[in-house]
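Section 5.1 Outputs to date
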Amino acid sequence: MKKDYGTWLLEKGVSKDEEVNFHQVPLDLIGISGPNSFVFMVETDGNEEEYGIAFSFDENILNDLIIIDESCENKINELKNGKIPNVIKLDKTITIPLITANIGEEIQNEEQVFVPLVIKKISKA
């Protein structure tokens, strides 16, 4: 199991109020994590280790994904309307040029403890 990037950021002294930017983030799966709450995961290299990043976001960001790449509009609308299971696979991997996020609250499940990064905005550049 990969180390959690959000936990690593906290250990390195990054404040929960501090914005963290991510560039060229691939996205192909989106999950529902609660009412108006969505999540996707990516992996990244850092400090000679691989980390897993959980990005958490709301429906506003979900709508912004359509602006980034219109090809995902149908799948996202199905997800918002509850017409498909709790996870969707997009027809193709899209790349989000820029994600601005803050460190979220620690979550503990049966398998691990992790700290999601809460997306505040996404943009084309």
